[in-house]
């Protein structure tokens, strides 16, 4: 099991009281599988993703990655955990405008201390996996929205994370390109053997995910479990 959330409760200050964002949420995501988290705005989807990413510490409960609990880790240790174990695909690609597609990925490897030649090889391998090997020398303004999102996904995989967390990757794309991005994430989840959590409000893309988890008012339920045919 690569990612496990156990009895997660998260609250925020709200005047004289506290607002419950997550209420005793538990979720298990095996390696090589994709779990989609769905629910209306304000239901707790983003809070769940932030807790799984160790960006927010819950009031109670545990986050376990590769069998090790993150409870009690210092801020520096959590940063190291994210660097080596967690890949995050943000809603907006936020690519650096002066860097080529390959360089966007190589920067991540540089932060991790990899040698330039090794970083270049890994970057090209991932760009090929997302269908952009022939666009490796292009800068963000030379790429379409869908291509920028694919670079964003490849960048999140650069340091071989065991957990991949994806936040609304189709929000700025039309249906055709959105479906292609979800198909890509599904394929890469299996190829790279990541435990992937995908937050989305749109169920239309979720025909091939392994598990669907619904969040409503901070509570999570899993109405169905299915294995993808790929």
UniProtKB/TrEMBL annotation:
Residues 3-228 form the ABC transporter domain. InterPro entries: AAA+_ATPase, ABC_transporter-like_ATP-bd, ABC_transporter-like_CS, ABC_transpr_LolD-like, MacB-like_ATP-bd, P-loop_NTPase. One of its GO terms (molecular function) is ATP binding. CDD domains: ABC_MJ0796_LolCDE_FtsE. SMART domains: AAA. The keyword Transport applies. One of its GO terms (cellular component) is plasma membrane. Keywords: ATP-binding, Nucleotide-binding, Transport. It comes from the Bacteria. It holds the Pfam family ABC_tran. The keyword Oxidoreductase does not apply. PANTHER family: ABC TRANSPORTER RELATED, IMPORT ATP-BINDING PROTEIN. This is ABC transporter ATP-binding protein.
